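Design request, tokens follow.
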């Protein structure tokens, strides 16, 4: 299959992206967070193909993307008033809500869970594609399972070229890490931290929701337990440069928010570019990626979450699920 490279600036290409989705094809679509691999919500075959081409474990559910806030009632039921209040404040944007799933929604998207995760993406062109499809789309990140999420078209093609019908290019993602996932079924808690923080959410909820600890609880979605966001070379988190063996200085790269002396292969550390840096170091065949955990980085809950998952030891049973 030849993967078409479509442009978000071309009306014809946007229409073609929507038509491909309608006809059961997979199309990688831009969003403000990361590129998503979309399929039409009602097309179970296409959704099954998403799991196949990503090598995604079937117990890791997908996020439904809607064009309009009201459309969430097509997939969720018994939506609590707080959900509408949160959406009024944060949608369209990088907030995903976990709600009760409507029975008509294919269970495959939720890995059989009674819940559904849903959001309204911020980019106009993304919502336009969804509106043209005429129903919501499901879209996990458009990478091979376990790998760093794609934040530009080159990343999508690195992982999925020839396996999907098209990719719609809107340039690099501005946020660059995945959405905040907030569970509203049962106890309110953050299942995945993102650009919208607990403090932001407190402005609507009245309290900062706690972060779910996947290691000590049964995760609300089994897929949360897998190692994620990881390049094929080791990611090593360090507290100080003293922890970087001198023999590694030439062969590795060091990500930090502050520039480092020339003896290091320094690259800047930001949410928006962290996955690009992971993939760049991989292409350059560096031996390892060291990440300097300065206090500003430690304070960034969302960035720390991704770094810790990317650095998770690869010799655990979780990794058997990676492809
Ligand atoms: P990705 O699309 O790769 O960003 O992954 C989707 C994320 O949403 C994963 O972390 C899932 O665990 C989470 N997710 C999707 N559906 C649900 C759900 N029904 N309940 C809890 N988390 C979900
Ligand atoms: Mg993903």
């Amino acid at each position: 299959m030849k993967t078409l490279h479509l442009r978000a600036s071309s009306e014809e290409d946007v229409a073609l992206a929507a038509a491909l989705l309608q006809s059961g094809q997979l199309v990688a679509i831009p969003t403000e967070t990361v590129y998503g691999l979309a399929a039409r919500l009602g097309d179970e075959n296409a959704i099954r193909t998403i799991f196949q081409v990503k090598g995604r474990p079937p117990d890791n559910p997908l996020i439904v993307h809607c064009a309009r806030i009201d459309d969430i009632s097509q997939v969720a039921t018994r939506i609590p008033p707080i959900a509408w209040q949160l959406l009024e404040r944060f949608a369209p944007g990088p907030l995903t809500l976990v709600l009760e799933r409507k029975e008509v929604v294919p269970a495959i998207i939720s890995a059989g869970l009674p819940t559904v995760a849903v959001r309204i993406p911020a980019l106009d062109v993304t919502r336009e594609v969804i509106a043209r499809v005429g129903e919501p789309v499901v879209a996990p990140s458009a990478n091979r399972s376990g790998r760093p999420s794609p934040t530009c078209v080159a990343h999508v093609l690195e992982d999925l070229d020839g396996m999907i019908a098209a990719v719609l290019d809107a340039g690099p993602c501005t946020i660059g890490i995945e959405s905040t996932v907030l569970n509203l079924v049962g106890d309110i808690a953050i299942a995945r931290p993102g650009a919208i923080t607990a403090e932001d959410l407190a402005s609507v909820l009245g309290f900062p929701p706690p972060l779910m600890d996947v290691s000590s609880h049964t995760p609300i979605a089994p897929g949360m337990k897998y190692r994620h966001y990881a390049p094929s070379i080791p990611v090593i988190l360090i507290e100080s440069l003293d922890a970087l063996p001198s023999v590694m200085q030439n062969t590795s790269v060091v990500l930090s928010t502050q520039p480092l002396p020339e003896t290091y292969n320094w690259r800047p550390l930001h949410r928006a570019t962290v996955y690009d840096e992971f993939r760049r170091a991989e292409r350059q065949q560096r031996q390892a990626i060291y990440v300097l955990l300065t206090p500003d980085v430690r304070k960034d809950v969302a960035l720390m979450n991704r770094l810790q998952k990317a650095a998770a030891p690869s010799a655990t049973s979780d990794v058997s699920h990676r492809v």
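Comment from the thread starter after seeing the answer: thanks! The chain has two domains: 4-216, 235-311.
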